[in-house]
Amino acid sequence: MRLIPSSIRSQMSGFLDIPAMRYAAGKPAPSAPEAPHKKENASSFLQPLSKLDLSFNSPPDFADDPSLISRVADCGLDDTSVPLAENMRRTYVVLKFGGTSVAKHLPSIVDLITPSQLVSQGRVAILVCSAQSYTVKAEGTTQCLLAAIDAALQPSESRPDISGTQTADFIDKPVASELMTPPPTPPRSGSPSRPQHASLPALDTSNSTDPSPRTIVEGIFQRHCKGARSVILQPSLVARNNDMSTNDAILTRLEEELRTDCDRVIRLLTAVETLREISPRTRDMIVSVGELMACRTAVAAFHSRGIAARLLDLTDLDISRCRGVVSDASLPDHHRGGQALDQASLENVVESIRDRIAEASTEQPAVLVATGFFGPVPGSLLESIGRGYTDVCAALCARAVAADELQIWKEVDGVFSADPRKIANARPVPVISSNHAKILTSYGSEVIHHRAIDQADISNIPIVVKNVANPAGPGTRVVISPDLMAGPQLQWHAKRTSSTTPFMFAVTILDHLEMVHVHFDNLELSSDGHPISIMSDIMKIAKDRNAGLGMDLVNSSLGDVSFVIRDATSRSSECESELQKSLQKLRNVASVTVSPEMSYLQVVFGHHERHSHSIPCEILRALAEAKTAVKMISYGPMGSGMGFVIPSSAASAAAAAVHDALLCISQ
């Protein structure tokens, strides 16, 4: 055994010796000559901030922050350096942070969470960041960029010209500075995080005057700059260090890069305004800038603390070996979809990410900050995967480096047995199988994107869901398969056996559904098969994920077919038109009943109870006692779960009744 070499220690200065997160007041890292500033041309991305050689001051002392001290103590960090075995290979841990976490908890991420990973294991951390979102996902950077695209596609005469005064008012709304406070006191164990921050208004104006694309992008730029300023020039940093010139230089450089990113978006939007159409690939290029700006901000925050970090830009990967051809067709409707991103393409993405990480690791940075948006991919990333692409990117990064663990950081203490905002006695689930997690994700619970779970399963990488506001909490561990829940060969599960594993269950609700029941009077469905052809047309509409139909839970019997679709609020205008035409054709040969305002109640329970007949009985008894009108029942394979289509008006009461019944069994 030997201590970490000085070359590595210099990169990890600021978090090797941490008595309650008080950084050692040693000498600054040796100054390196500053690389000449190279201007970026208009056709490519900026050089990452991490390529600029900077000389850092000694990191700050956060001893004046009681909440931070107590939380570091909870993490078990001590004042000793980390020994490194002679033959120890470089290991990795991948941490994925959502948009609200990056926007509101960046100080905690750079001062506590990431250093704790490096101190405890002596490994490299790869952070995968979503685009910033200060309130909810619908008002985040990605949504604003999509709104800017929509505005650019509108005819200029239908969009009023916004004056400079209005623009100034628009971008001067409260931004991240109100949220970039020292880390809050962790919540009570088992309860969701409820930050004390005041909610921010939506980025868009709330009046009848729609902002122009340039105004929206300018608002995004101002928010990022103000948020970065509050982190990089944090009052505690100023109080600790007499000379803040280095941090000033870091901030100036960051603002220049953010401005260049936004200028690039404006140029693309100008072209969209001129053409009045946009291809899926161009839309991806615009949206990807949100993740790029968030990662630049995170890298600058690490640099301001003296932590060696480097940007890992995954928005321009070389995936030429992918099967399929990236669509270049310009589509008037920019919400049209592209080709499917199959597993063969994802394997090539993993190889490209592995190459990119190898290039970035030549300087042996302690932290790599990767954009959650990756590509270009066949078709469109937004349309192939959806808004959960950052989860998938994190899983692909974990596969690329054979990571020890994939951590998904959210603002709740892991996966809960129910939505704690709706069911007061919901409890955290310590362990859940990957199959159960995918079921919950498919039916209303925002846990992890199901394709991210699939990718982690391929390489047997464990997933942990943790709370960014309570990093010392245990979180929820997503195990690879039910058979491995008690696997003694897995170190992180060595003490758990099948006989001691507690009964696991979870309840989730998917709202905004409609149930369609089709009854054929002619049981032979006519000799020409016309009704079957009509049903096939509806299935084709459902296959288009961008149409918003989302057909699921198809149930058939002799002469009857029932299925569930998304309601009208989720369907595109084109999809709605095609659906109504198909339903009208069906009405000519069958009786069609559409039941609106339906919900789907999904219950999953642990694999140890799959052979127990009492679980389904208890669920049905609870629904009966709650007087719930069940319209359709779905029973999962091997008894792993049950689902019920019920009226939306009864969904909350039904979920609470089922949850209480199963809670009694588990105690």
From TrEMBL:
Residues 173-214 are annotated as: Disordered. GO terms for biological process: homoserine biosynthetic process; lysine biosynthetic process via diaminopimelate. Residues 93-467 form the Aspartate/glutamate/uridylate kinase domain. It comes from the Eukaryota. GO terms for cellular component: cytosol. PROSITE patterns: ASPARTOKINASE. InterPro entries: AceGlu_kinase-like_sf, ACT-like_dom_sf, Asp/Glu/Uridylate_kinase, Aspartate_kinase_CS. One of its GO terms (molecular function) is aspartate kinase activity. Belongs to the aspartokinase family. PANTHER family: ASPARTATE KINASE, ASPARTOKINASE. This is Aspartokinase. It comes from Lyophyllum shimeji.
